[in-house]
Amino acid sequence: MAAILGAGVALPAGATMGHDGGTRLSVRPAxxxxxxxxxxxxxxxxxxxxxxxxxxxxxxxxxxxxxDPLDTTITVFRQGDPMAGSDIxxxxxxxxxxxxxxxxTAELTSREVSRLDATLIDVxxxxxxxxxxxASWGTDLPGGTFTVWYAETSPESGINTALSADVKEDPxxxxxxxxxxxxxxxxxxQPASRTADTSPYYGGSLISPSGCSTGFSVRSTQTSSYxxxxxxxxxxxxxxxxxxxxxxxxxxxxxxxxxxxxSYIKVRSGxxxxxxxxxxxxxxxxxxxxxxxxxxxxxxxxxCLSGAKSYARCNGQLGTGRTWTLPKPTGETTTASGxxxxxxxxxxxxxxxxxxxxxxxxxxxxxxxxxxxxxxxxSAQSGYCPSWMSTGSQCGPWGYITLARDMASRxxxxxxx
Length: 417
Known about the structure:
Thrombin, subunit H, Peptidase_S1_PA, Peptidase_S1_PA_chymotrypsin, Trypsin-like serine protease
């Protein structure tokens, strides 16, 4: 790990800063208190987003950043000498305002990490190598060593062979892949699945402790950060920590929107998302499909749904626009907006536990998906659940979904990259 070159000093007790049009928010001396740490995180996150936006747009050496709500500091990772470029560093400090930022050396820029991600996702999609041979990839620290983890049965040469066509045609890409480290998994690799997802994360997977589903992998149009969506009504509050179905850390909720019944889970540092959804019918928990864009709603459209409880179902038909009321676990309520969806064959369509899961339309010979929306509410009735579901499961033939177009416009995210 590179040495920190700029000392991070917390604001003094009682210090205040301007935020969002003059609202005064205080950064508290943490001292390990959970509520104070959450408060500081709420103050620091929007500033970190603005710093990231500045880095992506104005600093070619920008890699990533880390927020420390305990010390109330933000660390910016930059490639090469992190103190080079006084004008750029001045820009970071201007955006940070009264929050102290420090700088640390990174091996890769954010653009380089994104290109490595995109190339590996492309190879995984076209060769089906991911999910059977490659466990995951990403940086171990922001801008740090880029590692590809693979199974013992899949030698490094096999991955390199799959990559060779793309890499050999592009000298810049070849230089990038020269920095990649390959590491064998110990023991037999278990493919990522909707009940135990791993980085890069897919939509349609189980999350804990809520027992709901992720919807789509999305990226910010402003900062390029990775997010997993889920339902607003599944998450107690902003800054809530979310785990995979296996209990491994996934990320932290950074923003919410009751109108679209959506929460945005900012994927943990060192991990990423891929624009894919799990789309296998029960019991196939590993099959996935590439999301290639977004589709606009039309009443009568026949659609597929994919939740952690029901797995994939393609018996949905879109109805008319609706609004409905939803409660959070804390008792807070909201009015959500979207559309009615019903099963066109009279069987079950949605189960409790599918909330937040993706609604999509198949395209390109059913090999790819267009994002349509996410599952919000199920009409739970007796007698609709299939026999393979656990005792006590609740299912229904109709429900409500929120729409991808509203999520994209209200939160500046996109569904494919």
